[in-house]
Amino acid sequence: MGAQLKIGSGNTTAPDNVLEVEGSITVRDKIYAGGDDNTLGNPGKAGQVLVSQGEGLPPRWRTLNLPIIEENFFYLIYNNSFTDYTDDGNEDNEGLSLGSSTSGNNGPYTEGTARDNAMFSGFQSISGLTKTFDVFSSDNKVYVTFEAVAHIGSSALNAGVDFSCGIFVGGATQSSRTLRGIRRVTLQQADTAQYPFITFTQIALADELGVGSHTVEVACKRNANYNYTGNLGIGRAIQENINNFVAKTSLKVEVYEAPQTFHDIIED
């Protein structure tokens, strides 16, 4: 036989629930979730909270895993790696093949200059490495790591090239991206081996970006020739001693933030 009970009100109107309490409740022992006529149900464990499972289902004890956040500490919020290499036989869209021209500004280059400034005349973007990421806190540090193989097709002693690759971070358009890091590299034939190549890595830091979406772009330029006017491959093979898989570019974006808003992660 069922009944409805209302506690703590002078209003005699029948409650909508089996038990309705207007006021505070002090519980000095267990609360059992679930159960039936023959079992008490689950009393939960230390640190768990009672969570609704929705209409028609009993509540359930759950564990909330909340990160321990220290003031003024930065935490890795986003981490992803990219390459422009695809094993589809189409090499035209992978890396860069720069001809003999060294026209345009050959440096030095100034941090914070917009990508579309005349300073970067002659720079070509590696289109497959132009990527977008999000920032959720105004207190942030973004590390961008770029790596590739540079390759030339010379067998002449001391033949080589100088080139520069820059990392730009900003908005969706080149005019809103600025230089955050650049390296000038020399690739030169030092012995009788043919078709030299080198692996080079550079890291750039972009900090205090605004909250929202941002874009990273990598662009390179040929600065000087040394007894060699053939193509320079950056992330692309020029001769058969390596292939595009070996020469491929890679880009890693790491976003560190001092969090201002947190989302609870709920696990059983």
In short:
With 268 residues, this protein is mostly beta strands. The protein has one helix and 16 strands.
Shape: elongated
Distance between the termini: 35 Å
Whole-number count of domains:
2
- CATH fold name of the largest domain, please? Jelly Rolls
Architecture overview:
With about 270 residues, this protein is mainly beta. It has 2 domains: about 1-65, no CATH class; about 75-255, Jelly Rolls. The protein has one helix spanning about 245, and strands spanning about 5, 20, 50, 60-65, 75-80, 95-100, 125, 130-135, 140-150, 160-170, 180-190, 195-205, 210-225, 230-235, 250-255, 265. Strands 5, 6, 9, 12, 14 and 15 form a 6-stranded antiparallel β-sheet that branches. Strands 7, 8, 10, 11 and 13 form a 5-stranded antiparallel β-sheet that branches. Residues about 260-268 have low confidence and may be disordered.
